[in-house]
Each structure stands twice: as structure tokens, then as C-alpha cells.
Write a structure and sequence with these properties.
Layout: H1 3-10, E1 14-15, H2 20-26, H3 39-43, H4 45-58, E2 62-64, H5 72-76, H6 82-104, E3 117-122, H7 125-129, H8 143-159, E4 164-170, H9 173-186, E5 192-196, H10 210-217, E6 223-229, H11 236-244, E7 251-254, E8 260-262, E9 267-269, H12 277-287, E10 291-292, H13 300-311
Parallel strand pairs: 1-10, 2-3, 3-4, 4-5, 5-6, 6-7, 7-10
Antiparallel strand pairs: 8-9
Helix pairs in contact: 4-6, 4-13, 6-8, 8-9, 10-11, 12-13
Cofactor: Zn(2+)
Binding site for Zn(2+): 230, 295-296
Protein name: S-methylmethionine:homocysteine methyltransferase
């Protein structure tokens, strides 16, 4: 069963979590590494579980796993075997499921809510490069090469029991179609959302019109929702309107805070949105988004704000 469809029938919007890396840094983790938050799967997995729990307690309906930057080659560069890399990918799902089940044991915290689900994070090829390419695209890779790149992680996340996949920060259409075809041809019954990174209020990072990208994904039943993430908040309303012209699928948005990312230093700087995340989310819901959360530099407090502003 399509987990998004069934949950949206119960209530809307669905509230996603916020930034995992931001919260890990707030807990003292140093993420200036090619593995980024994935290194904490090795060093302090209990902190990842705690962050997931924090987001559930804040009101999130979903935990997105700490697998965004997990790849066979990425772990190999740190001395890990293929088998060890796959186990670490699976650990990301286990941690999220354990946090979800721990949260759900407390009857006082989930009155009126549906049981949260776990989305296995599938970052783009650009995340493996660890040079900011998820905001540029232009990999120069074929669709088949991208299918082969994504297959092992998707296999691991599915085997570990993720309820669905979050294929996120995708900068180019060829990568989105590679993922959609991989799911259609090799992973029957597995659903995903695909969210693009966008460079302005019309175009995804590599330059294609977002409207045309989501239209291309429309025939794929395995793609349960489409949208944008890790994009400045000021572009989101326009991007929602563009997506509505090209898709009948539920629209998912989880922008970053509005700050700028330096891929060399791996730090964020600049100003955040002038509005609270909850105020913005209220508008995005009115615009037509039905799945809403936060990406880089957002916090559990932002998720609580989204919940209050979109359900009151």
C-alpha cells in the first residue's frame, strides 16, 4: 500500500521531520567529513536515534533516515567493506524504527495521530561527491550509471524495513528518472517521493523547469509524491504553483532555513527567512503542499511550529 496515500486520507498535512545534521551538531558532533552525518552511524548511533525521537515528540509523522550520504564507495574510502557499508545503511533504518516504536509506546504523546512512518533517505550522486553537486547537477553520467549507483542503497533500505524511500535533493531530471525506472523495474511495491533541489522559483538546480520534471514523473506509480527540498523558503510558493501545473501527485516541500551553503568548508551562513517556519508552512499548505517539513538548519522547534500553524 502507498503509505502516503493512506495517511493523507486520515489527515493532512503530513508533517515531516527537520534537519538531522543540524541537531547532531547541536549535540556536539563534528560533521566536517565526506560522510557527513553518516559518520555518526559509526561513531555514536544512539545520538541519531535520539534526534529521531526528538522530532517525533515535536510532532513529526515521519523520520527520514541517516542514509543520505551513505554509499558503498563513500564507506570504502574510509576503509569499510561492501558488507559493512550495507550493514551501516540498514542500521540507519533500524535506529529510526526503534525511535518510532519507543515514541509510540507512550500513549500520552500520540492521541489523535497515526503511527509515524520511516522514510529511507536516498541522497543524490552529488552527495557522494561531497562537493555541493546536489545543488548543481551536471554529473555527466548516463541514466544507467545512475541506476547502478542507487541500486545497492535502495536494496539495503528496503531490506531493513523502511516504509518508503525519500529520494531527495535531486538536482537533475536524468537522476530522477533513473530512480523512478529502477523502482518500477526492480522494486515492485516499493514507493518513494522524489524531491528536487531548485535554484530559483521555476527551475531545478541543473536548469530544467520544475513543472516539466514533475510531469515526466507523473506516469510512475511508484513515485508517491513529488516536490522540492533544501531550497530557500522564498521560492517555495511559486514552485508549488508550478508543480500543480504538471502533476496530480501529492506535493511535498521541506526547504532549508534560507541560509547559504559553502560546499568547501561545509558550513552555512547568512540570514534565515524573515518569517517563522510555521508562518511559511501555513502559506505552503494553502498553496497546495500536503507533505511539509524542514531541511538543513531547521529544528524540532520548527516542526512544532509547522504542526501548530497548519492544523489549528
Amino acid at each position: 500500500m502507498n503509505p502516503i496515500q493512506s495517511r493523507l486520507q486520515a489527515h493532512a498535512p503530513l508533517i515531516l521531520d527537520g534537519a538531522l545534521a543540524t541537531e547532531l551538531e547541536r549535540k556536539g558532533c563534528d560533521l566536517n567529513d565526506s560522510l557527513w552525518s553518516a559518520k555518526i552511524l559509526i561513531e555514536q548511533p544512539e545520538l541519531i536515534q535520539q534526534v529521531h525521537l526528538d522530532y517525533f515528540q515535536a510532532g513529526a509523522d515521519c523520520a527520514t533516515t541517516a542514509s543520505y550520504q551513505t554509499t558503498i564507495d563513500g564507506f570504502a574510502g574510509k576503509g569499510y567493506t561492501k558488507e559493512e557499508a550495507i550493514e551501516l545503511m540498514k542500521r540507519s533504518v533500524t535506529l529510526a524504527k526503534e525511535a518510532r516504536d519507543l515514541f509510540w509506546q507512550d500513549d500520552t504523546r500520540h492521541e489523535g495521530r497515526t503511527k509515524p512512518f520511516v522514510a529511507g533517505s536516498v541522497g543524490p550522486f552529488g552527495a557522494y561527491l561531497s562537493d555541493g553537486s546536489e545543488y548543481k547537477g551536471n554529473y555527466g553520467l548516463s541514466e544507467q550509471a545512475l541506476i547502478d549507483f542507487h541500486r545497492p542503497r535502495i536494496q539495503a533500505l528496503v531490506e531493513a524495513g523502511a516504509d518508503m524511500l525519500a529520494c531527495e535533493t535531486i538536482p537533475c531530471l536524468v537522476e530522477a528518472t533513473a530512480i523512478a525506472k529502477l523502482l518500477r523495474d526492480e522494486f515492485s511495491g516499493v514507493y518513494a517521493w522524489i524531491t528536487f533541489s531548485a535554484k530559483d522559483d521555476l527551475h531545478i538546480s541543473e536548469g530544467d523547469l520544475l513543472r516539466e520534471c514533475v510531469q515526466t514523473l507523473e506516469p510512475y506509480e511508484e513515485i508517491a509524491a513529488v516536490g522540492v527540498n533544501c531550497t530557500p523558503p522564498q521560492f517555495i510558493s511559486s514552485l508549488i504553483q508550478e508543480m500543480k501545473k504538471g502533476t496530480s501527485k501529492p506535493i511535498v516541500v521541506y526547504p532549508n532555513s534560507g541560509e547559504l551553503y559553502d560546499p568547501e568548508e561545509k558550513v552555512w551562513s547568512g540570514d534565515t527567512s524573515h518569517h517563522t517556519f510555521g508562518e511559511c508552512a501555513h502559506q505552503w499548505f494553502k498553496d497546495g503542499a500536503r507533505i511539509i517539513g524542514g531541511c538543513c538548519r531547521t529544528t524540532p522547534e520548527d516542526i512544532t511550529d509547522i504542526l501548530k500553524r497548519t492544523t489549528s
